[in-house]
Amino acid sequence: MSLDVAEFHAEVYTIVRLIPPCRVTSYGHIAKLAGMPNHSRHVGQALKFLPANTTPLIPWYRVIGASGTISSRGPGTDGARRQRNALVAEGVDVTDGRTGDFRIDLRTYGWFPTRDEVRAMQQIEAEDV
DNA sequence: ACACTGACGTTAA
DNA sequence: GTTAACGCCAGTG
After folding, report:
1. Does an H or E element contain A21, and which?
2. Smallest CA–C1' separation from A8: which nucleotide?
3. Which residues belong to any copy of the Methylated-DNA-[protein]-cysteine S-methyltransferase DNA binding domain (predicted)?
4. If residue A83 lies in a helix (H) or strand (E), which one and from where to where?
5. Average pLDDT, chain A
6. What is the per-residue pLDDT across A63-111, written as a single tens digit (0 to 9) for each?
7. Which chain C nucleotides are covered by protein, judged by CB under 7 A?
8. What phi and psi, each to the nearest 5 degrees, are found at residue A25?
9. Span CA (A18) to C1' (C5), Å
């Protein structure tokens, strides 16, 4: 069974929507929750593919690297800075590293549920509607 | 087929 | 605490 890219992206989006406010998780953890533990890079690819304004809103800015740093989009881009602003606006404490990188304390803000917990959350979402 | 890239992760030093 | 070297895998040229 081959994996459809669109299907993977959709799976990523449904999981990212479940991240609570003021919490962050990593690309790799999203990949695990989607059942693709070695596709962390493609989680980033899925988020990059995301349009600016989505309905429902997908909190892409709550996804950071496993080391607790906001991934750089390369020099000359402002994506990382916008991500930091979005997190700060939510009340997340973002510290500025020496080399201009942005760090978040995962022990405080990290959100790393199991697949079962995510399934339970999806069940609750379905009931709420 | 080949080399290189990327919003990544783990490990070693 | 840090950086460097791999491993990873779908796209791209």
Report:
1. none
2. C10
3. 7-92
4. helix A79-90
5. 94
6. 999 999 999 999 889 999 999 999 999 999 999 988 889 999 999 999 9
7. 2-3, 7-11
8. -140, 180
9. 35
- Residue A25 per-residue DSSP state: E
What are A11's two structure tokens? Answer: 């799976």
pLDDT at A19 over 70: yes
Q: Where are the domains of chain A?
A: 5-123
The reply to whether A6 Cβ lies less than 7 angstroms from strand C is: no
Q: Summarize the confidence of residues A44-63 as an average pLDDT.
A: 91
DSSP secondary structure, A87-124, as one string:
HHHHT--EEEPTTS-EEE-HHHHB----HHHHHHHHHH
CATH for the stretch A5-123: 1.10.10.10
